Amino acid sequence: MKAMILAAGLGTRLRPLTDTIPKPLLTVGGTPLIVWNLLLLRASGIREVIINLHYLGHVIEEAIGDGSRWDMQVRYSHEPTLLGTGGGLKAAGWFFDKQPFLVINGDTLIELDVKALIEFHQTHGGVATLVLRDDPQAAQWGAVESDAQNRILRINGRGMSRADSIGPLVERMFAGVHILHPSVLKDASAGTPFSIIDSYTHALAHGSKIFGFVHGGYWSDIGTVERYAHAQADAEAGLISLFPRTSP
For residue 188, what is the domain's CATH number? Predict the structure, then answer.
């Protein structure tokens, strides 16, 4: 399986730290965030990765290069205009050979068994699998509602009708890691900015199956100065052990 790391964002909430350093290159425990993710992917056997770039993209490309220092093959998708999470995936569609692929945010730190996630996706057979986590503030992040079989019905209140569910639903938050088939993006216009959540809710409304893989390990999105400082403290305290974290 191939993967994409989303790294085109502006990092606005982390300024002034990101005035000259793109957010994916901020370090935690002495390692850039994007390298944590490359190593997580490599530990699961994923070697081919594409990274989308916009803000200070040349700095990221110079730092990562072709990925050979980590025994990986890294390509790039340049976005002169930000395309959003969905538009960025659509623009990189040529890389995935019409096969399912994994996506992770370049600013996400997650202790994840990627092999188990891939196996879950293949076993359940949905068009997509989203990594979900329990969080008391799930509604503030954007609630993802799923049933007892981990089938997702709605995201941010959009998707299938509650009448289509069997039994109670659980609200969790999307952790920023997902596997999807490129067909999810088939109705989206190339070169137009949009959120992948729009494609997911459209797919749900039309009966496509999307599942949630529940994650209980370490996670941080490093979205603000405060959360960045917290992640750094976690690393110093030895609370982050992100890889290798895979199935035997």
Answer: 3.90.550.10
